[in-house]
Amino acid sequence: MKVLGIETSCDETGVAVYDTGQPAATALRAHAVYTQIALHAEYGGVVPELASRDHVRKLLPLIRQTLDEAGLRIADLQGVAYTAGPGLVGALLVGAGVARSLAWALEVPAIGVHHMEGHLLAPLMEENAPEPPFVALLVSGGHTQLVAVEAIGQYRLLGETLDDAAGEAFDKTAKMMGLPYPGGPQLAALAEQGTPGRYRFSRPMTDRPGLDFSFSGLKTQVLLAWRDSDQSPQTRADIARGFEDAVVDTLAIKCERALEASGCNVLVVAGGVGANKRLRAKLDVMTRQRGGRVCFPRPALCTDNGAMIAFAGALRLQAGQHEPAQVKVTPRWDMAALPALAAQGA
């Protein structure tokens, strides 16, 4: 089944074609992402109206480009998947409107995909992907969650952030220290030049039981350290390293607790922060010491992309799930409310 995936939940326009009839190594026929970073940089954050308008401009050309790279005609598509939520309502409606129009014109089924389920399932596109049950860490600019995955479509929330998500904390901390937008990747790169241990910040909520997260207090600690420092380039790097170490340690401690609580030894990590090199190394060591393993998507599929939507949609379409021909999005959507798959397999 050749499925077109469309992602327009925020400020990336993502398109991909996933072919369930191919081996895992070649099933992703083509994918492309257009980022709006330059558009929003002067505002220091995403402007929803501008994001929606740019999706309108970029989506159709990106679909044509992706189909060309896949060596397919539009008539070859057998299903369409699109991000239906959560996300910015205007941006979501652009993708949903195009997806539904294509599906109607081609007389093929279409399905709205939960953005975070797309992230969660992205590592399963890789070779030697794990089978449920496993624990998933979903860590991005908008979400930090630990989820017990009993089966595809059967999700149980174990813990989540009570305030800022990890990626959001990276971005806000970078902005406080004068780094350009988007700050998270800039801060992580700067941390590579920092001296380990020169600044040590707390590991929030690790001194008490539970699997919830909180990063707002850590952000305040960094603000105070930066304000009272000499603000030299090396000090900036040292503070960045201290902040990154605190976030990585906190995530690793909570992940280990979640594995112990669930009785699993397999951890799946997805979302933009999942591309962080220090986090990947820390979680790899932790899971190996437990006799388990950790699975990540390739770095290009950690951030928002159409491939994860095409894959998640293909699984549900293959299971016989599809929806009425209406343009419907859900900007706020609890992943636990998703239906389980009656059948599985890619």
Determine the mean pLDDT: 95
- The figure for the number of domains is 2
Oligomer: single chain
What's the CATH class of the largest domain, please?
Alpha Beta
CATH topology of the largest domain: Nucleotidyltransferase, domain 5
EC number: 2.3.1.234
Protein name: tRNA N6-adenosine threonylcarbamoyltransferase
GO molecular function: iron ion binding; tRNA N(6)-L-threonylcarbamoyladenine synthase activity
Enzyme class: transferase
For this entry, give a set of tags.
346 residues; alpha/beta; Nucleotidyltransferase, domain 5; 2 domains
Topology (SSEs and partners):
Blueprint: E1 2-7, E2 12-19, E3 28-35, H1 37-41, H2 48-70, E4 79-85, H3 89-106, E5 110-114, H4 115-121, E6 134-139, E7 144-151, E8 154-160, H5 166-176, H6 183-191, H7 216-227, H8 233-262, E9 266-270, H9 277-289, E10 293-295, H10 306-318
Helix pairs in contact: 2-3, 4-10, 5-6, 5-7, 6-8, 7-8, 8-9
Family: Belongs to the KAE1 / TsaD family.
Binding site for Fe cation: 115, 119, 304
Main location: cytoplasm
Describe this structure as you would to a colleague.
With 346 residues, this protein is of the alpha/beta class. It folds into two domains: 2-122 and 301-337, Nucleotidyltransferase, domain 5, CATH 3.30.420; 131-296, 2-Layer Sandwich (Nucleotidyltransferase, domain 5). Helix content is 41%, strand content 18%. It contains ten helices and ten strands. Strand 2 and strand 3 form a beta hairpin. The longest helix is centred in the last third of the chain and has 30 residues, at 233-262. It is globular.
